[in-house]
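Hey, can you fold this one?
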Amino acid sequence: MAPTDVRRRVLFIEDEAGLRNAYERAYGKRYEMAFAGTGAEALPQLASFRPDVIVLDMRLPDTDGIDLLRLIRSDHPDLPVVITTAYASIEPLVDVLGMGHSGYLLKPYTLDELAERIDDAR
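Sure. Predicted structure:
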């Protein structure tokens, strides 16, 4: 595989099984993917999968997305993170706390919109 053919490694941290399945179907040939449904699942996946980009849902069953983003930033300050949420009030909070992100999408969004954010994340 030529260097330009290398697929980005994306860790999706999303508790909705339907969305995880949609991501898998839509992006299976586009990205190498790993999935976590909780914050507890995300941290070991982060260590073992070593993603190029994280797609992080801000509402998880076991942790607040802000707390999880803080943990991610402590060990991986430059790792691109695309934030997804159904709550418009989260974006200003993340910005104010200085936990930069590589994109922000308010649910509902299209799979094309998310792919564009993943592809542009640096």
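The longest strand covers residues 9-13. Let me know if you want another pass with a different chain boundary.
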